[in-house]
Structure formats: structure tokens, C-alpha cells
Write a structure and sequence with these properties.
The protein is of the alpha/beta class and about 375 residues long. It folds into two domains: about 190 residues, Rossmann fold (3-Layer(aba) Sandwich); about 150 residues, Glycogen Phosphorylase B (Rossmann fold). The strands form four sheets. It has a six-stranded parallel β-sheet with strand order 13-12-11-14-15-16, with helices on both faces. A four-stranded parallel β-sheet has the order 6-8-9-10. A hairpin with a 3-residue loop joins strand 3 and strand 4. Helix 1 crosses helix 14. The radius of gyration is 22 Å and the shape is globular.
């Protein structure tokens, strides 16, 4: 997951890699080196494997992380799960420890304490907003529940959804939050045509759950002069919004920005607007708050939890509600200043030391328990 760019899962994995050295001096990363994409070869490898575990290679000792190497393990695991309906078992070349999977992958480390992060249940609760198969996610979570020492979530809202789902049996579900620590913005100039504090920003993948079409309608209805900047990669079903974006007046579309440029763009915005229909966390919202940027966010459980009263909350299904909030944040300097002050205070909850402390408590409690047979 560390190799995936521009996703919340990748950012979570990167945050985890920053927190682990504060917890232990003995950390390692499992590298899933991708080989060729020949489907028949992957299928043959999975069939040949059957129920036998994969022996992972020892890698190089690094600082602060050592590396284990498992070739093509991610794709092989999914093929294996499709064929057998079971988790792929691996054996790591080290004394037993804690394996923290940063996503519900269908893999288990034999003889280790396995912990899985589940970011959200959007494919189950809102199947029209996700391309992930609800049936496959259910099946994966039920198999993970048989071997997991803990299920970790990124928010109390996600924890509540998981607990209500009845998919995990008696596995303990723990909210560890997420690290929010955006880099300091650079002094580089803004893209041509943009003036600091004189544009609104949307940051995120272009997919249905981000509610971009309704955002564009609300922006047009607000009749404000400052431009709306949309940045982020094309996600699932992006083609449904691209036409709307190109036809919208005063809207600037930036499909890809390097991280440093993105942070600078966010830090100089008049406000971030995040009218998502569903989220497990809401990283752009939290990062904007940490950078001292006013925010407009959806009145959904995860955003309420992150904002803690520091955002203008809107009904994401109501265009006029979003438009009214856009007008207010664009014109009311006193309101913007209050949102900045509250936002910085709320974002402090997601700092590195607190995140590492919560993880450490989870690891110690899980490792102290009898090992679950894998």
C-alpha cells in the first residue's frame, strides 16, 4: 500500500510507517513486488499453491525498517481467495511478532498476531457509490474475523458501522484514528491565475461519492466571483463528472499535482469544500484544518467527528445548503477566522505522538493474548 499514490489508503500506510519507529526499534515492511501481469501464470501459481503457505524471503536490513519480500503476493492472494474462498497463508522469516495489514487483504501471517485496518464499509452501505463487490468484501471480512487479533478503524464512525454490521463476530474493534501531518507549504508560486485566499478548493478523487456534480451546481448557484479549483485523480466513474467540469464557468481543473504543490495549493485556499456523500475518515478535511484553512464539509458521521465543530456542515444532498455555505465562507472574514482557530485545535487530535500511542496500546494488548490459530 505504500507504493500506491494519491489514495487515502496509501496516506494511512505512510502515516503508520512514521509512527512505528516511535513504538519499536524492530520494524519491517512486507514488499509485494509485482511480477508480470500474465493472468494464466497468476492462476497457475494460485492453483499450484492450494492450501500450502508461501514462504516469504528475507530482505535487506534498512533504517528504520527491515524488508521482507513476497513476489506478486497481493494479486496472488486475490486469485487464491477467488478460487478457494480462504485467506492466503504466508510464513515470515523472523520470530513471531505483530503483522499489521493496512487494508483488509485476504492474507494471514502464520504464527503471528494479525491486525487488520478496515477503513470503511461504503461498498456495503452505499453500493451505488463504490465499484467494490459487496459480496466479496463480506466474504473477506468473515474470513479475516477468524484470524484477526484486532480490527483497527480510522474513525469512531467507521468502528460503529463495523460493530453494527455483525460481520466480525467477537473480534475486538478499536478506533486508532489516523495521522494528519501535512508538510509545511512551500514558497513556490501558485498556478497561473490563482491568488492566495481568493479561490475555493476541492481535493479528492473524482468518483460518485465525492458529490462533484452537486458541488458544481451549488457553486454556480452561489454566484460568487472567486474560482473553484478541483484537484485529484480520476476515480471510479470519473467520466460522468468530466463533462460537467469542462462546461462549468470559472472552474479550474487540475487532475494531478505533486504532493508539495498540493499542500501549497490547499494552504492558500480561501476554503476547502468537501461535500462527500460517504467517508470512512475524510483526510482532505483534516489536512485543511491542520493547515489553517476554513472548511465546508458534509453533515455525515465521519466529518462531524473530524471537524468537532470547526466546519460549516451541510446536507450533501441539498444543493442550496451547499451554495449557502459557499457564499458564507467566501464573504464572511470573521466566520473564516473562527473556523481557522477551531480547525487547528481540532486537528491537533491527529498528531503523530497521539497516533503512535494509540497504536502501541492496541499492539501491546493484542500481543499479550493467546495466539489465534491460523
Amino acid at each position: 500500500m505504500l507504493g500506491v499514490q494519491s489514495t487515502g489508503v496509501a496516506t494511512y500506510a505512510q502515516g503508520l510507517s512514521r509512527a512505528l519507529p516511535l513504538i519499536s526499534s524492530r520494524c519491517a515492511i512486507l514488499e509485494a513486488w509485482a511480477e508480470d501481469d500474465l493472468r494464466l501464470r497468476r492462476l497457475g501459481a494460485a492453483l499450484h499453491l492450494g492450501t500450502r503457505p508461501i514462504h516469504v524471503e528475507a530482505g535487506l536490513q534498512g533504517s528504520p525498517f527491515a524488508r521482507f519480500v513476497a513476489r506478486d503476493i497481493y494479486r496472488r492472494a486475490h486469485v487464491h481467495f477467488s478460487i478457494y474462498g480462504r485467506l492466503l497463508r504466508i510464513r515470515l522469516p523472523a520470530p513471531a511478532g505483530i503483522m499489521h495489514w493496512t487494508y483488509p487483504v485476504p492474507i494471514v501471517a502464520e504464527g503471528w498476531t494479525n491486525i487488520y485496518t478496515v477503513h470503511d464499509l461504503i461498498p456495503l452501505r452505499h453500493p451505488d457509490l463504490s465499484q467494490v463487490s459487496p459480496a466479496r468484501l463480506k466474504a473477506t471480512l468473515r474470513q479475516i474475523a477468524k484470524v484477526a487479533a484486532r480490527i483497527v478503524t480510522v474513525s469512531a464512525a467507521a468502528k460503529h458501522e463495523l460493530a453494527e454490521s455483525d460481520l466480525l463476530g467477537g473480534v475486538e474493534i478499536v478506533d486508532a484514528g489516523q495521522l494528519v501531518a501535512p508538510e509545511e507549504p512551500s514558497s513556490s508560486p501558485l498556478p497561473s491565475g490563482l491568488v492566495a485566499r481568493n479561490y475555493l478548493l476541492f481535493c479528492g478523487s473524482h468518483e460518485p461519492r465525492k458529490n462533484l456534480v452537486r458541488l458544481l451546481q451549488a457553486y454556480a448557484a452561489s454566484a460568487i466571483a472567486m474560482p473553484l479549483v478541483l484537484t485529484g485523480p480520476d476515480g471510479w466513474d470519473a467520466h460522468t463528472t468530466l463533462g460537467e467540469i469542462t462546461r462549468a464557468p470559472n472552474v479550474i481543473y487540475m487532475p494531478y499535482l505533486k504532493r508539495a504543490a498540493l499542500v501549497t495549493l490547499m494552504a492558500n485556499a480561501r476554503a476547502l469544500v468537501a461535500p462527500s456523500l460517504a467517508e470512512g475518515f475524510g483526510l482532505p478535511l483534516a489536512e485543511a484544518m491542520a493547515l489553517g484553512v476554513p472548511t465546508v464539509a458534509s453533515d455525515i458521521p465521519s466529518h462531524r467527528e473530524i471537524a468537532r465543530g470547526a466546519s460549516l456542515l451541510v446536507d450533501p444532498h441539498c444543493t442550496e445548503d451547499i451554495a449557502t455555505a459557499i457564499r458564507r465562507v467566501a464573504s464572511d472574514d470573521a466566520l473564516a477566522a473562527r473556523l481557522v482557530a477551531k480547525g487547528r485545535a481540532s486537528a491537533s487530535h491527529f498528531g503523530l505522538e497521539g497516533f503512535a500511542r494509540r497504536l502501541s496500546e492496541i499492539y501491546q494488548a493484542a500481543f499479550a493474548e493467546p495466539l489465534i490459530s491460523t
